[in-house]
Amino acid sequence: MNSDSDATRVVRAGLPDEEPYAPPLPGPVFAAHYHLPGDPAGAPYAYGRDTNPTWTGLERAIGQLDLPGEEPAHTVAFASGMGAISAVLLCRSRPGDVVVLPDDGYNLLVGMRERLEGFGVEVRTAPTAGDAQLAQLDGASLLWIESPSNPGLDVCDIRRLADAAHERGALVAVDNTLATPLGQRPLELGADFAVASGTKALTGHGDVLLGHVSCRDPELADSVRQWRKYVGAIPGPMEAWLAHRSLATLDVRTQRQAVGALAVAEALLARPEATDVRHPGLPGDPSHEVAARQMRRFGCVVSFTLPGKEFAERFLEALRLVDDATSFGGVRSTAERRGRWGGDAVPEGFVRMSVGVEDADDLVADVRHALDVAGASGTAGE
Ligand SMILES: *Cc1c(COP(=O)(O)O)cnc(C)c1O
Asked: For the domain 250-381, what is the CATH code?
């Protein structure tokens, strides 16, 4: 059944046809090889690096979420988000090509830039906000978009950038990790590749590393699948199964997270200690207007800046419902001072918070209390 409702679609996405006395979601298939009589041409399963029935189920499910309707997306699952990202960047790039990256995207893109340049690819960068990548597109072969960007939460007009890139003959990839397929559908906004880490909100329990690439065009998906075969960045069957199992709650989780994230962002706006409070769902946010046009949910991440490193550390220490941990998108709220990694261009007091599925009022109370504690011990001790 092809329901318009996300809640209905996620619970059955990718499940096999009903079969008496079989489980609705078959368990993980652990196999390095399969029984393979005769000619392997056309065999659906032959060797474990190429195909696995548990991946097939997950890939079908994500394809149906990335592109709902009669012609779902062709999806290729990877061992991690970086596996998926590097597959698209590397399998499409030849010496002399021009790749346009965001300069405020996921921090490992900086290292990817060096790798690409090492292969003779020209890399240009521009900020996500204000569609600044538009000015870099002449002669480009691939445009890489990350919207909303992590951790700054800037947003660009994906349709506008994709149209401009296509006019110049460039392909377009969107890192959709933060939004999830329920929050934003890059393929419907004109992207050729919707790429994401499944480690974050897609699976949502903080216990799996995974990634995927979805395409409308089966040939583009094939080029990515071939790359996976050569590089071998394949998901484990257990991880793929856990991910598929987790998709059934994607609507419930992201719905609740969006409510909590907005409540926390609004509570932070009312506090003088927090500046630059960012969340695309906040009506006054610089990202809101474009986000409201192209996103269906605004995600679970809130970012803000506290008065310095020590204040932020005291705040994180005083939180009782929010773990000091990296990553985001999980059912348990987490927050961290991004500056501790040294990779993002952010102030020392910059905090990225990921809102889980706890009660929104409890989270707001916890954040307010931690701000009080951080402020009080600061004046007493310094
Ligand atoms: C985490 C993340 C990645 C990398 O995903 P892994 O699963 O950790 O490899 C890529 N892009 C964004 C936006 C991310 O947040």
From this structure: 3.90.1150.10
